[in-house]
Amino acid sequence: MRRRILLAIGGTLLVMLVIISLSSSAILRDSYAGLERRYMERDVQRIMGDIAWQESGLGRTVGDYAAWTEMYRFVQHPSAAFAGENFTPESAANLNLEVVLVLDNAGKTVYGRQFGTGTSEAGVVDSLSAWIALHPRQVRFSDRSGKAEGLVGLPQGLLIMASRPILDDHRSLPVAGTLVMGRRFDADAVSQLGNRLLVNVAIYALEAPLVPDSVRRVQPRLSAQNPLYIDTSLDKVASIYSLLRDMEGAPVAIAKLDSPRDIRQQGERTVKFFFIWLFFVGAGFCGVVLLTIERTVLSRLVHLGRSVLAIGTGGDPTRRVTIAGKDQIAYIGAAINGMLDALYKATEELRVSEKRVEAFLDAVPDAIFRVTRDGTILDARSPRQLPLLEAANDLVGRDAEMILSLYSFLSPELYDKSIAATEKALDSGVSQMLAFHVDTESGRRFYEERFVAGSEKEVIVLVREVTDLKQAEEARRKEILLKEIHHRVKNNLQVISSLLALQATATKDPHTRALLQESRNRVHSMALIHEKLYLSADERGVSFDTYVRDLAAHLRHSYAGNSEAVTMEIDMEEITLDMDVLVPCGLIINELLSNALKYAFPEDRTGTINVTMRADGTRSLVLSVSDNGIGLPADVDVSAPRSLGLRIVNTLVSQLHGTLAVGAGPGASFTLTFPRG
Question: I want to staple 141 with a disulfide (CB 3.0 to 4.6 A). Which of 29, 165, 194, 361 is the partner?
């Protein structure tokens, strides 16, 4: 069996590792393949964008020449002087032009010239004129806003062409003709495009005689629905093919982009590393699991089985199983030993069973009755903890009238409910619960009465006093209610704080914004108190040290932001304050810290603000807020201040029945002495 278990576990782990390896490698390869495709498609988009940029640039040049009164006159009255002066090889070289055509409204060529060397003067002009004759809508415009630009496939190669209607300077006269300009999109232009975009690109015109066979094979795969085709048949280079269309939308060329397969190679390395890593981790994991199961489970189970067999066949009732440890197997061994001990002591336990039952019943803190269906008490036992039921033993065999006379606090209605619960427990077999209370001289006492079917004819009734539990539940409900009140007050104050923040943001006056921020800080100090009370487990109040540190951090962020110029040192005794003292103290500290942060350290001065709290004797507390800043202005009278903040401080000091002392400097120092409360 041990071998089968180990083989099953090992085989399962091996299958899981194989599944994880295959699925993970497939996911990784797909991810890297998708990444490679996205990079290649992005490069194709860049190439298309560059070609479109060249087309639009040529279109702007044509538009500048076409909207010219002199050109307008030239179409109507051709002049060799105008052509020789404006269509020069130098200007064509500057504009990177290969051919210029000037057409009248009938489509007749008024002027045509090809620039550059290596071909005959009329070669490109004639080819372009022939193409225009077949596609007249690209040069005949019915209104002044017409335009056309794009690629054209000629026998001499690809040409970027743009055409615009010829207009006067003011664009007020009718269209006089069309100006057409073009530039070669040959191998040099493609090479410049590749250098500009840092890609390895080649463009093959479909009409060219020398098109590689690889491009010809790809051409049937390209269509309007599938404008891209990626060839990943080679290990080191991947090629993406894109179909280029002319101004009429007809296929005119194929762009081929070669990209080194660095991403694929990196993916293969990653997959290989992942396989190796997973193999070693899986092998180690399998070994650890199998070794652990063998040592901690299987070998110990075999030992346990042999020990039990030896005890069963040995005939020695004192022999026990020896299994070390604190796990479930050791627990089973201990349980077996316990079972053997129980069997060994069964005879003695039978002798003393009645005494044990008696002791057990005496230990139960409930009054226990055995009651028949009609309410007759067969047996009764009453603990000392229930003084109202001290006479429970006298109830055996008594009828309802005797029971009600003995227990004056029981009403006939309660007795009837007890009889009904007894019958229901017997009929349904489900335990029943009945709660009642009685009024005594010491107060109201609460009890619970439980009915459990002991047999088909009688029930066991347990009566327990639950006054302490009721009082504890009531106290807990009050505590929860108080916490909920603090939570709701805190939420409402935070809503007010948020409204003040929104109002401050909407206010353009800096003084008004500062006043709203001060009011928001005061509201925050009170909300923080209720938040601490809500989170505090101490019913008496809140730790003042924690509250002051949170309040100081909030104020420092509000006035100093992320600046490290001002340091706050807080030294508070562990003092818990109630609400009547905590709220005024919090507001006083809020005002004093706000003043220190705003006025004590102007022009990014550095300094320290100290906040301390000490118990002065047993009835008084001393709160001190001081700084080493520039100090209070000479005209400030703390006893009759003009600022709202100090007036609030004086009001709160009076509310606390305390005294406020102001230090002489350097800096500002305020010391508040007030009774503990």
Answer: 165
Instruction: Find the angle CA(463)-CA(468)-CA(469) to the nearest 5 degrees.
Output: 80
Q: Please count the structural domains in the chain.
A: 4
Same domain, 667 and 574: yes
Domain limit, last residue, from 263, 290, 312: 263
Can you give the pTM of this predicted structure?
A: 0.42
567 with 528, same domain?
A: no
| Residues β-bridged to residue 458 | 372
Residues 619, 547 share a domain: yes
Query: Cis (ω within 30 of 0) for the bond into 666?
Result: yes
Indicate the residue among 535, 558, 584 that finishes a domain.
535
Helices within 163-261 (DSSP H only): 187-197, 213-218
Q: Which residue range forms the structural domain that includes residue 569?
A: 541-677
CA 271/CA 274 separation, integer angstroms: 5
Residues 213, 254 within the same domain: yes
SS3 for 299-319 is HHHHHHHHHHHHHHHHCCCCC
**pLDDT (average), residues 335-348:** 74
Q: How many Å apart are CA 186 and CA 674, to the nearest integer? A: 94
Q: Cβ of 90: how many Cβ atoms within 10 Å?
A: 8
Let me know whether 577 and 675 are in one domain: yes
Nearest residue to 613 via CA among 531, 522, 674, 541 = 674
If asked whether residues 528 and 616 sit together in one domain, one would say no
Q: Where are the beta strands (DSSP E) in 530-616?
A: 542-543, 566-572, 576-577, 607-616
Same domain, 671 and 557: yes
Whose CA is closest to 465, among 396, 409, 413, 402? Answer: 409
Nearest to 79 by CA among 68, 66, 70: 70
- Tokens linked to 526: 């009170």
**Cβ atoms < 10 Å from Cβ of 537:** 6
**Residue 327: strand, helix, or coil:** coil
Note whether residue 567 is domain-resident: yes
pLDDT-based confidence at 107, cuts 50/70/90? confident
3 state DSSP class of 222: coil
Q: What is the CA radius of gyration of the chain?
A: 50
Q: State both tokens at 404.
A: 């009600």
